[in-house]
Fold this protein.
Amino acid sequence: MVNAGYVKLDKSRDISPRWYCTHILPIGAFAAISLALGNYTYLYLSVSFIQMLKAAVPCVTMIVLVATALEKPHRMTVLGVLILTFGTALAAYGEIAFQWIGVIMMFSSEFSEAFRMAVLQYLLGNLRFDLIEGLYVMAPASFAFLVLGIMMFEFQTFQEEDGFAKITGRPHKYFAAAFLGFCVNLLTLAVIKSTSSLTFKVVGQVKNTVVILVSVVVFGSEITFLQVVGYSISMVGFAVYQRGKQVQAKAEEREKEMDGYERVELHEQKGEA
């Protein structure tokens, strides 16, 4: 509901145009940059190598979260991310088809994605946005920047290849893709809201084993022994990270208990006085 330049989302939160531009539009910009550069990377690097580089996403995300003061990871968590990153670097060393432009695009995409995750974590955690509410305010910004990118870089090709006819000829496939995209975005927000963007990215590395296997079996992508070793090290880093999160959760729980005891003691002392 629009009211005097404000979008009313619930009983307690109004979003002004200025707040939308400073908090929501960056999400759309980062999402568009991450998606565009991530897709262009496939023109320069193999699928297996791209998945190996994506294992560095947790490290990039952790750097952004620490820099923005959104998270203070436990030292074991940091160690796990570093081990994972080392495994990624080792796997990259064994890459056969290597082009720097592809690597630069990939890491630019990862940093854009990390900043998007940081803003999402801030909105969902600090401001306590609901899932549908979050999609409601974020989707238009992402759509606007993606359309802008299409108009600037791909519209001519889209016209030459008669893209509209392809869409109207198979509308059910595009609607299905849109619905699956909605489900992915909703689940992404749910995971970030219940855990953190760093955990979301770390857990996402588990699927890389399947992706690499499919790439080798179906597409015939080459993968070296050194890459296998590097990815195995990354999985060890993931296990260490998980242990670090458990230790951190227990430490935070103890701190809350101690704070509760201190408040009770302070209340009793005031009562005696």
